[in-house]
Amino acid sequence: MTAPAAPGRAERRGGRAVPAEILRQVKRIELRTRGLVNSRFTGEYHSVFKGMGMEFAEVREYQPGDEVRTIDWNVSARMRRLFVKRYVEERELTVLLIVDCSGSSRGGAGVRDKQGVAAELAAVLALTATRNNDRVGLLLHSDRVEHVVPPRKGRRHALRMVRDVLAWPSTSRGTDLGAAMDYAARLLAHRAIVFVLSDFVSPALEQPLTRLSQRHDVVAVVLDDPAERVLPDAGVARLRDAETGRLVEIDTSDPRVRARYAALVRRELDERRALLRRLAIDEVVVPLEEGYVEPLLRFFRTRETRARRR
Questions:
Q1: Helix, strand or coil, per DSSP, at residue 67
Q2: Is 128 within 8 Å of 95 (Cβ atoms)?
Q3: What is the mean pLDDT of each run of 10 residues along the chain (310 residues)?
Q4: 230: CB partners within 8 A, 6+ apart
Q5: Which terminal residue of the chain has fewer beta carbons within 10 Å of its beta carbon, N or C?
Q6: Residue 132, helix vs strand vs coil
Q7: In the chain, where the domains are located
């Protein structure tokens, strides 16, 4: 495993030179996110996820105060007195980041594009998991699985993943998030936390999401570009599809065109939210123009509150 090179020097990885500017970006992202990880996210992450991974330890006789749900009824029936199962918290968890690197991920109408925000989110989540002694891995996809970094520990490993999000030379501009989730389901041997960083504009997501969430704790991190929700009123314009390269000419000032576009955007949003609610998958919407800090903190606090109520 190779650590990111010092800023100003190119690094060779897999026969390719990683541009010095990418390495400087990685360093800037690390500096920006380090304080957030240390002061805000590490404690929240620990309180939400550290009780999730439990492994069986032993069966012992029931004692007053034990929870009824821990009673092992089979053993109790054989022994003719109550016994409970005892579990211990797993020492480490596995976290997988699924990140879109298709053509649409390289775009954004504002000063921040989806790729840059995804890299910062990857840094925060990977470094936070590392601080909690968890393993973290990466799966980059377009309309195929482009690159997989197996889950491991350590700061250098986490920064390598940030670099890959920024610099991986995708072989395709299309998107197939479902195929990536199916690959992740086969890749992960044990229960894991899976953060899916995507705009979720991809066909046929219900079955792959269902299969992945049946075994793993899936969190949908939606990279939301506000410029994609509203068609600009700019008259006749030629637009190029970031994934297919197809050019289309439309009158953006035509009320019928604008109304149809708004209806399609609303339908996509409603269908995604309904699907995630139906599968009990948490949704974290990250607006590109506002950043990820508050949405992530809200997610952690909501999960913690829900766990306490249970």
A1: coil
A2: no
A3: 42 63 90 88 82 63 83 91 74 89 70 85 94 94 95 94 90 89 94 94 92 95 88 84 79 91 93 95 93 92 81
A4: 262
A5: C
A6: coil
A7: 11-48+91-309, 55-89
